[in-house]
Write a structure and sequence with these properties.
The chain is an alpha/beta fold. It contains eleven helices and 30 strands. The protein has two domains: 150 residues, Golgi alpha-mannosidase II (Immunoglobulin-like); 350 residues, Alpha-Beta Barrel (TIM Barrel). Helix 10 runs parallel beside helix 11. The chain is globular and about 70 Å long.
């Protein structure tokens, strides 16, 4: 009897372990991805990846937490090795200087004027006193940009000369360009390279934050800036872009503004904080919800159509996107889970013709690509760097059949032959086996003939062969999506003791093998052995 009970107990334990393992093991699914390689559907700037630096002072606090400390344009340690190496790794990284307080900033081009920093004061407009940029700090910033190879844009104060109605935020009066003109002249005299001047921050009509400017008046002010740039840069071979309005898209205001600036504006910029407030506990759920992510496609599509309808030569930019406003959410917008949103945004934006996408922020708040003060990379930094190195300018139409939780985007490869496919698995339970084909047939198949050796596109990489491809699998340690670390092909990415960015080494896989995308993971797939007239290198 005892032996029977022991046997039953043993079998019960075995059955429990089998069932438990079955429950824990991910499900398996097969998905087909089709790439149309015959024609590009969009084209980005070569330096599509962009990050912002903001003006918020240390006493900028949200929900009782102050997250800007020494991470702002006025106090950032520009000599920090980690920061220098992080920016240099892109060479170039596009950097947008700006933010809410740019419309409270004056420029001390006259040394006789007092130059005070921002001070928290809830009785004043936007909750802070007026701030000032000393020219000594402007010199230091430009030296930093030169040393790191950064391509920079600067957001100008668009509220000078205007009166803001405290009741409804609507402004009266035209933009006064005199202080901006003095900054532009100083910049040209010093020989500093500025890629673009952007007028204002989040002032576009009903969607304005704190202050609102009509489309007609804003268009008039952009024309003033354009005239100013043409006059001051008259002897320059390359003139900076005129960019604006840097606001939240509105399907009435933006088309009207664009139609009035066809000869004066080179980039139509807008901002994205579509996940909600940083304090919201539902951020992670929205990030992993494909239906929610799809909603932003409407904004991209409407802006693309407005630009086409106007006849302007201006292009679309996202000049600020942090996902969650009010400085983000710690361990969400600066953690591994945010890369699902960020990379999906990059892929979606490029599909709709966006030329530049600026992430809020390079450092500062709870949504920085780099950690506050230490400048050690957060997961999204590595996601951005892989995109920058792998995804070329030309965008190809990509469709997925069979599952909504797999997102797929394809570009011609950057500085290399073939294509790069980005796969994002939002499903926490399914290990997806992906087959890939183009209009010319399957491309994940054994290459015929003798394999030819070639060097991987990154330095210090192994020699690989033409019957193989490169894969970069991004996962969270122990599947902890709130981790601020990222694994590349199973290895933790981290800087060394000298602050050097690690080598991003791919896994070499046979071309005949399908792509296996683990639950809640991201994969970049570089497929070199592919023939396409669109992707020529």
């Amino acid at each position: 009897m005892i032996n029977l009970l022991c046997s039953l107990l043993l079998w019960g334990c075995i059955v429990y372990l089998i069932l438990n393992r079955a429950l824990e093991s991910p499900k398996k699914g097969k998905v087909h991805v089709l790439i149309n390689s015959t024609v590009e559907i969009g084209q980005t700037d070569q330096d599509f990846i962009c990050a912002t630096l903001d003006w918020w002072p240390p006493d900028k606090c949200d929900y009782g937490t102050c997250t800007w400390a020494t991470d702002t344009l006025l106090n950032l340690d520009l000599n920090n090795t980690n920061l220098l190496n992080a920016v240099k790794a892109f060479w170039p990284l596009k950097i947008r200087m700006g933010g809410t307080l740019q419309d409270r900033l004056i420029y001390q081009t006259n040394e006789q004027l007092p130059c005070n920093t921002f001070v928290k004061d809830n009785s004043q407009f936007l909750g802070f006193s007026q701030g000032c940029l000393p020219m000594s700090r402007w010199d230091d910033l430009n030296l930093f940009f030169k040393h790191t190879g950064a391509v920079v844009t600067f957001g100008l104060n668009a509220l000078t000369g205007r009166t803001v109605n405290p009741e409804d935020g609507w402004t009266t009066g035209a933009w006064d360009p005199r202080n901006a003109e003095s900054l532009l002249r100083y910049t040209v005299d010093k020989g500093y390279s500025i890629h673009g001047w952007e007028l204002g921050n989040e002032l576009s009509g009903d969607n304005g934050i704190g202050a609102k400017v009509t489309a007609q008046q804003y268009a008039s002010d952009v024309k003033t800036l354009h005239t100013l740039v043409e006059r001051i840069y008259v002897n320059s071979q390359v003139k900076p872009l005129v960019i604006g309005p840097g606001g939240f898209y509105d399907n009435t205001w933006f088309p009207e503004f664009i139609a009035e600036t066809t000869n004066s504006l080179q980039a139509v910029s807008h901002h994205i904080y579509n996940l909600g407030a940083g304090v919201d506990d539902g951020l992670e759920g929205r990030i992993l919800d494909p239906s929610y992510l799809d909603k932003e496609a409407t904004t991209f599509s409407n802006l693309q159509q407005a630009i086409r309808n106007s006849g302007t030569s201006a292009v679309a930019w996202v000049s600020e996107a942090g996902g969650a406003y009010n400085s983000g959410h710690n361990h969400v917008t600066n953690a591994f889970v945010m890369s699902f949103w960020y990379l999906d945004q990059l892929g979606m934006a490029a599909t709709f013709g966006t030329k530049t996408y600026c992430r809020q922020s390079l450092v500062g708040g709870n949504y920085g690509l780099l950690k506050s003060s230490t400048f050690v990379p957060n997961p999204d930094y590595y996601s951005a760097l892989l995109w920058h190195r792998l995804m070329g300018r030309q965008v190809l139409s990509t469709s997925v059949s069979g599952i909504k939780t797999l997102r797929a985007y394809t570009h011609c490869s950057k500085q290399s032959q073939g294509m790069t496919l980005l796969l994002i698995n939002l499903d926490g339970q399914t290990n997806i086996q992906v087959s890939v084909s183009t209009d010319r047939g399957s491309i994940l198949a054994e290459t015929r003939g003798s394999p030819v050796a070639r060097r991987s596109k990154f330095e210090k990489m192994p020699i690989i062969r033409d019957n193989t491809r490169e894969e970069y699998h991004l996962t969270a340690p122990n599947r902890n999506l709130n981790s601020q670390k990222m694994l590349l092909n199973g290895k933790v990415l981290k800087v060394d003791s000298n602050g050097n960015i690690p080598v991003l080494e791919p896994a070499i896989v046979k071309s005949s093998d399908p792509v296996n995308v683990a639950p809640l993971s991201i994969v970049f797939v570089h497929i070199p052995n592919i023939v396409s007239q669109t992707c020529t290198f």
